[in-house]
Amino acid sequence: MKSKVFLMLKKELREVFRDKKSLSMMLLTPFLIPFLIIGISLLFDSQVNSSLDDFNKMGFTYEFDFAEEDMAKYYNLDYKTGNEEEIKKLYDEKKIDLYIKKIDNTYEINYDENNEKSAQTVYLAEKFLESYKKYRQQKYLQEHNINSEEALEVINITYNTINKKEDNFYVNYTVGYAFLFVIMAITISATYPATDATAGEKERGTLETLLAFPIKSKDIILGKFLSVSTTSIITGLFGFLLSLVALFYSNKWFSIYEDLNILPSLPTILVTILIIVLYSFLISGLCVAIASKAKSFKEAQSALTPLTFICFFPGMISFMANIKTTNLIALIPFINHIQIFNDVNSGNINSLHILLMVASIIIFVSLVLAYIIREYKSEDILFRN
Amino acid sequence: MIEVKKIKKEFEKSTKRRKKIKFYAVNDISIEATDGKIIGILGPNGAGKTTLLRIIAGIMEASSGKVLYDRKTFEEAELDIKKNIAYLSGNTKIYQSITPYELLDMCLRFYEFPKDKINSRILEISKLLEIDEFLYNRISKLSTGQMQRVNLARCMVHNPKYYILDEATSGLDIISSQIILDFIKEEKKKKKIILYSTHYMEEAENICDYVYLIDKGKIIMEGTPKEIKQKTKTTNLRDSFFKIIGGFNEK
């Protein structure tokens, strides 16, 4: 029996490796992952670094003194001064994002809460006014012969980080998304060979030839399932390798990752490889099950398209919603692998959760395979057209 | 010996009003094929020939009845029986992305042919069917006739005892058809059993020892071509068939 399964696997893999479409699905899809990782890093980096330059346009309804001029230069303000009417006009023309009105010793920041740019500029305006306030306080104390340092710093606040956080928001997002891209590449990669090996074989008329061989339908299905799994694993591992390369270079190129180690640790890499293998089996089983029920190649492709989204979204939601992994969640396919990846990536390795995930995926795949083997004997599946 | 005993195959079809009704594609058919005989299964398209031969080849299951190969059923020895069957039909296609050599190698391994004899067997069969010139070219690059010869090689490479050939010459040019017919005659000499279905009555008349005429899933007449012609008082099987159909309908 084993040799027949191996023969089927060999036959299927030969077809996959000689078919340009299958090969491109298997090997080209992972090439998109580095671009997506670098794209996300670039987006985050530009958001962080552009904050000061993009949100610094403001107006003042009064003239600056020397100290204010120096501080405006220090904070790189792109400012205009003038009377209230002139400044308001500039604001209405959207040449400035907010303006500050001075009434005696009160400085009023006028901004639009519904406008993101205006709201962001408030942060810089506050910093500027706080610094000016401190300068005025120091000056006042000096004029009254009071030691300003003693008066202003009656107490000191210092920070000592006991357990330094290695990652940050951007690192979590980028690494999490890199993993989701790998999962998506596996899903996409599994659909074409699964369709080709089942509905495609039926459509090309080679299925009847195959059924005439002295081979059991169980061996046919196992051979097909293993070949789809093999291509998915190749895609997953290749995609993961390219992700690591992309993360390595992103770590070097982008300032948001400065002083941080964005690359996953060795345990994370090992668990990720395990997840890639398990997920490949899971998705391959489902794809073969769905595609084998289709009458034609086209019908199989239509049936498998929603699967790409169904597989991606539960994981994405669990990643975005920051759900805590419980024993129950570790048992739910399509969510457990994302949860366990996130846990391991955060340094929380829970062996029980990993075992539950492995067990649940093995049971799920076995059930799917048993279902396909039973269905593959059905003439309605094999001969309807 | 192949014995087909009271085979019935029920299918469902939809009516104009999408109501599902059951019908028999094969209805109570019994056939016997002994060693060294070519048995013709003749009938128009849709008569039930393909379904019957699929059941005999073990690709489909009958709703009722039995198929016995040397007194063994598929339930008793499916893989052993299939090892000795060669199934070729107009519907069976071969893998396009591999070479004839790879195809034959794969088939022999499926049929558990001795590994050390695989290469010599492939070379022997390729010479016999004149496919040795393109043995290492991709099948997708071959002409229809060449492809059909490869399909025939695929079918006989494991030296089977029983041949089930369903519309094997359908759509082929005269040379490719003749290669298949010559091959059938050669295999008959080796005491092989050949079940041969066709809707080309002249072809069947030339090669078949015994003929079953089938229409609407039922055997409407059986006998040697000579007997059938005598019974229907016609000079060829085509006329016999039309005469029987007419008579059958009048009944």
What does this structure look like?
- The complex is a heterodimer of chains A (385) and B (251).
- Chain A is mainly α.
- Chain A has two domains: 262 residues, no CATH class; 102 residues, D-Maltodextrin-Binding Protein, domain 2, CATH 3.40.190.
- Helices cover 71% and strands 5% of the residues of chain A.
- Chain A has a four-stranded mixed beta sheet, with helices on both faces.
- In chain A, strand 1, helix 5 and strand 2 form a beta-alpha-beta unit.
- In chain A, helix 3 runs parallel beside helix 11.
- The longest helix of chain A is centred in the middle third of the chain and has 37 residues.
- The model of chain A has no long low-confidence stretch (mean pLDDT 86).
- Chain B has 251 residues and is α/β, with parallel strands linked by helices.
- Chain B has two domains: 139 residues, P-loop containing nucleotide triphosphate hydrolases (Rossmann fold, 3-Layer(aba) Sandwich), CATH 3.40.50.300; 69 residues, no CATH class.
- Helices cover 39% and strands 26% of the residues of chain B.
- In chain B, the strands form two sheets. In chain B, strands 5-6-7-3-8-9 form a six-stranded mixed beta sheet, sandwiched between helices. A three-stranded antiparallel beta sheet of chain B has the order 2-1-4.
- In chain B, a hairpin with a 2-residue loop joins strand 8 and strand 9.
- In chain B, helix 8 packs across helix 9.
- The radius of gyration of chain B is 19 Å and the shape is globular.
- At the A-B interface, helix 1 and helix 10 of A face helix 2, strand 5 and helix 3 of B.
List keywords for this structure.
heterodimer; A: 385 residues; mainly alpha; D-Maltodextrin-Binding Protein, domain 2; 2 domains; four-stranded mixed sheet; 16 helices; elongated; B: 251 residues; alpha/beta; Rossmann fold; six-stranded mixed sheet; three-stranded antiparallel sheet; 9 helices; 26% strand
